[in-house]
Design brief:
Elements (H helix, E strand, L loop, with lengths): L8 E5 L6 E5 L12 H4 L4 H4 L2
Antiparallel strand pairs: 1-2
The structure holds zinc ion.
């Protein structure tokens, strides 16, 4: 069985939180590294919260 559910998907390690995330193979990852959706929205953590 070579076919698995992960077909079309791959793992990327978030450079911010260091966790592995399943992303689409079609997703583009910048040279600086993959940033997960959760960390992407935290760029302005000081001004965004409160
Ligand atoms: Zn992250």
């Amino acid at each position: 069985m070579s076919k698995q559910r992960t077909e079309g998907l791959r793992y990327e390690t978030c450079v911010v939180c260091g966790r592995q995330w399943i992303v689409s193979k079609l997703a583009t990852v910048p040279k600086s590294g993959y940033v997960c959706p959760g960390c992407t929205g935290r760029k302005n953590e000081h001004s965004d919260k409160h």
